[in-house]
Amino acid sequence: MRLPPLFALAILLLAFASTSGCGGKKPAKRYNFSGERAMRHVEAVVGFGPRPAGSEALERTRQYLETELAALGWAVERQAFTKTTKLKGKVDFVNLRARIVTPGSEIDWNRGGGMVVVASHYDTKWFEDIEFVGANDAGSSTGALVELARVLGADHPDIARKVELVFFDGEEAFGENITATDGLYGSHYYARALWRPLPAEEKPSHGIVLDMIGDKDLLITPPPNSGAGLVELAVASADDLGYSEFLEPGRTAIIDDHVPLNTEARFPAVDLIDFTYPAWHRKFDTLDRLSAESLEITGQITIEMLVRLLGS
Hints:
Blueprint: H1 5-19, H2 35-46, H3 56-71, E1 74-85, E2 89-100, E3 116-121, H4 135-155, H5 157-160, E4 163-168, H6 185-195, E5 206-211, H7 230-241, H8 258-265, E6 269-273, H9 292-310
Parallel strand pairs: 3-4, 3-5, 5-6
Antiparallel strand pairs: 1-2, 2-4
Helix pairs in contact: 2-4, 2-9, 4-9, 6-8, 7-9
């Protein structure tokens, strides 16, 4: 059957609208964040297998991150500490801190005045009975931070100089749930040991924590126990980019790495998290559940937030 030319054109236009996504019109890409590049880092990290705190696999992950970040022009410092845990005894933890290398100047790791911390945890939850590779939790946000390092260093050097990337160790509790004494080991230590004693002007100004941001069915819901004004900033950034369907204010407080930044380091931090994820802490948190597009959307929103906080 042959359709009249105008009718055939209408059918083609409808077909294009139905496949272009984002309500029929895919937003123009504002920043050079690549979901495909981020996904390759996620795949590499997941390839190390389960990565609970204190494991050899997590050490291999650290070495991978250090190598990739160094190649992108970022200096990396290991913030190592040991804690006695109820279920695993003494555990050695290592946070990774990264700052852009600026020729002719030295990095003062003890000062952060006016900087923005962008963080993810990079450990996976420990299980005795399942092989948990944590593709989304926390492979997705770990890969996104490495791609963020590339984009900031290449395209936004002025912003990069005001950012510290942090990979927290030990976010996951060894018991079933995070408690006051189990979980958030890395962010607690980072907040207390480094920033808590300093006056406000010497601390970072804000924090952005990424967690579980690779789900194919993405809906980021920054919780209400985020720092003042930052949920609104995230919403405004998503709206301006055309991603409003992928981010909305959360209704329930969440205990995550943003909490020690808010309450102990005492600078405002937000948690960009998609907690509506059926594979959370299950053996099928695997790569097939993730989407490069979701990583890219989150990366775009994160950069827009940084531009609004720090300038272009």
